[in-house]
Design a protein that fits this description.
Blueprint lengths: L1 E5 L4 H17 L6 H13 L8 E9 L4 E7 L5 E3 L6 E3 L18 E4 L5 E3 L3 H4 L10 H11 L5 H15 L7
Antiparallel strand pairs: 1-2, 2-3, 3-6, 4-5, 4-7
Helix pairs in contact: 1-2
Length: 176
């Protein structure tokens, strides 16, 4: 599982994202360690991009036998894990700096077990930072409420609900 977000907009950000996708596809077959992959990518990027540009990445490996997710969150928005057992939401907070910000990059891997009915929501800041006319952001709390509300529904239903909620919250203005 991977989700990434590049700082900035335009052609240079698009090229950086494209190079990240290539680097991930190139390195992933050689190791199953999310930390090792991101450490290698950071070594490459730190010497080839400016410190004003960075990439946030959530990279994870899921073991379907043990139902364990092993991940590194390199400065990305914390994914939401909802536990079916008690309806609690747990946020998978960053365990490393964003790619391209620190030469001394040490990614700390974390693992989390899942049970039947638990869910995981990955998203970018484009969801939580949507603002309304009063300059209020959509935020994690509203996102958590949607995760709770759609806990027993399918992933496409939750995705559609998130899209509709942020569109309505942003008063149907184009999303950036």
């Amino acid at each position: 599982l991977v989700i990434a977000d590049v700082s900035g907009h335009g052609v240079s950000a698009g090229m950086l994202m494209s190079s990240l996708q290539t680097a991930l596809r190139t390195m992933a077959p050689y190791t199953d360690s999310p930390a090792e992959i991101l450490e290698r990518i950071n070594r490459f990027y730190i010497h080839n991009i400016h410190f004003t540009t960075f990439v946030t990445v959530f990279l994870a490996r899921f073991d379907p036998v043990t139902l364990t997710l092993t991940y590194v969150n390199a400065g990305h928005n914390p994914p939401a894990v909802r536990r079916r057992e008690n309806s609690a939401i747990h946020w998978l907070k960053p365990t490393a700096p964003a790619i391209g910000l620190a030469e001394d990059f040490h990614a700390r891997m974390q693992s989390i077990g899942f049970s039947e009915g638990d869910s995981l929501l990955l998203y970018t800041d484009g969801v939580t930072e949507v603002s309304n006319m009063r300059n209020e952001e959509f935020g994690q709390e509203r996102l958590a409420e949607l995760v709770q509300q759609y806990a027993d529904r399918s992933a496409p239903d939750l995705l559609q609900a998130v899209r509709q909620a942020i569109s309505a919250f942003g008063e149907n203005r184009p999303l950036v």
